[in-house]
Amino acid sequence: MRHGEELRGDELRGVRDTGRGTGPDPRGGGAAGFGPRPARPRQRADAVRNRAQILAAAEQLFAERDPRTVTMDQIAKAAGVGRATLYRRFPDPSSIAVALLDEHERMLQGQLAYGPPPLGPGAAAPERLAAFYAAAVDLLERHLPLALGAETGPARFRGAAYGYWRAHVRELLADAGVEDPEACVDILLSPLSPEVYQHQRHTLGLAPERINRTLGRLARRVLRTTEIG
Which residues have a Cβ under 8 Å from the Cβ of 225 and sit 6 or more positions away? Predict the structure, then answer.
């Protein structure tokens, strides 16, 4: 028995010597046989910094030129990151524009749901639609390059923001008793296309205030005569 015990003792010592690290490292580094644990906070900080650099560089490029011509190579170079780093986070320039625009659009969504009237609940449908038009025009005026990079062509209709705007305006149409709101809603959203706004502002030279007044009249004329109650 004693000999067997000595063997087991030798085996245990061998495990401790050759498998050093199968248990926690007393210095707090994790499994000692594999060295200290990766510095996750540092990795997260690097990822946050890289993302911020990418978004800032892309926004600058989108503002300087037609966003539809900006390439991933240009964004990576301007951000000072490698192509692999860029593609791990974003598949294409449009997705970067979407990320930049998303925060601004979410703020407007919150105002529509919880803000004071007429933009938020509590006002008549024509006034709410006019207020939505004014807020959307302001968003386009401040962030048109991002909208052009994110919401042009068929991509506009697939975006989460368009779905939110569509649901909001359709509800206003239904509340006002407009006939066939499902067919009407996209027609009323069409003036807010980034391409339409770009044409009005930069080709025709129309001021935002003029566009706002016209859209406000449209909202009141479409909804005013049919509003229920």
Answer: none
- The pLDDT of 196-202, averaged and rounded, is 96
Give CA–CA dist 76/101, Å, rounded: 19
CA-only gyration radius of the chain, Å? 29
What is the SS3 string spanning the chain?
Answer: CHHHHHHHHHHHHHHHHHCCCCCECCCCCCEHHHCCCCCHHHHHHHHHHHHHHHHHHHHHHHHHCCHHHCCHHHHHHHHCCCHHHHHHHCCCHHHHHHHHHHHHHHHHHHHHHHCCCCCCCCCCHHHHHHHHHHHHHHHHHHHHHHHHHHCCCCHHHHCHHHHHHHHHHHHHHHHCCCCCHHHHHHHHHHHHCHHHHHHHHHHCCCCHHHHHHHHHHHHHHHHHCCCCC
24-79 pLDDT per residue, tens: 444 444 444 444 555 555 657 888 889 899 999 998 998 888 877 899 999 999 99
pTM of the predicted model as reported, rounded to 2 decimal places? 0.68
8 A C-beta contact, residue 145 and residue 62? yes
Alpha carbon of residue 189 to chain centroid:
20
Residue with tokens 């300087």: 64
HSE-up of residue 203 (Cα within 13 Å, Cβ side):
7
Q: Is the pLDDT of residue 161 over 70?
A: yes
